[in-house]
Structure formats: C-alpha cells, structure tokens
C-alpha cells in the first residue's frame, strides 16, 4: 500500500500571502489542523497548523486577522511522493514528530495529504500506534 492509496486527494491549501484568518477558516471548514501552503505553481512551500497560529502568532500578542501565513508557517514542509510506502509515511511522522504529511506527484506538485488518522483506516494500525506514541511523547 502507498501514500496515494490512503491520502486525502486535492486538499484545501493556501498561499503564503493569505491571512492566518483565511487559513483558520479553511481549517474549520475542513475540520483539519493543517493546511498546505503552496506557490503559484502548486509546489508546497510550507504548512500552516493550528499550533503555528496559536504559538507563533496569538501567544505572541499578534493579530491573526491580518498576519500573513508565510510569516508563521512551518517551512520547508516535509513531503513525500505519492508512491511512498505506508512504512515511509509512518517513519517520517515518527522521526519528525508530525501528524500530517503533504503528498506530491511526480512533478513535485501537491496532490494530497496523509494524516495520522488515515493510517488507522488501513491494515497498518500497528504503524499508527507506534507513530502516535512517538508524536505524542513529550520532547
């Protein structure tokens, strides 16, 4: 099984010049905690997470209404190709302590995203448990 088999295809995304408010609204509409940030050619340049917004903006006393995504996003984004195995996805999540991985096609364009919850939908539940333990462990 590969990333393309479990990914959410064509995820909502935003640009670095979009506001944090826009990114947060996308998160609320899609019920997700991360939005890929792309350039005009659909290459992933970063990701903006609910945690990025809270810790890098709100906790610093800045306004999420006007702040540009590019100022607060996590960059570069850690991506994998759509042919990556589930083991590769799980290894990246566990080693980097991340819950979501943007997926790119052969031209390095955003084509999907795999979340920790997606591993639960597969026969790779044991991988999900190992990743969840690692991602959730205190630093």
Automatic annotation (TrEMBL):
Residue ranges of every copy of the CBS domain listed in the record: 7-65, 73-129
Presence of keyword Glycoprotein: no
Keyword Manganese: no
Family matches, as InterPro entries: CBS_dom (IPR000644), CBS_dom_sf (IPR046342), Diverse_CBS-Domain (IPR051257)
SMART domains: CBS (SM00116)
Protein name: CBS domain-containing protein
UniProt-listed SUPFAM superfamilies: CBS-domain pair
Keyword set, alphabetical order: CBS domain
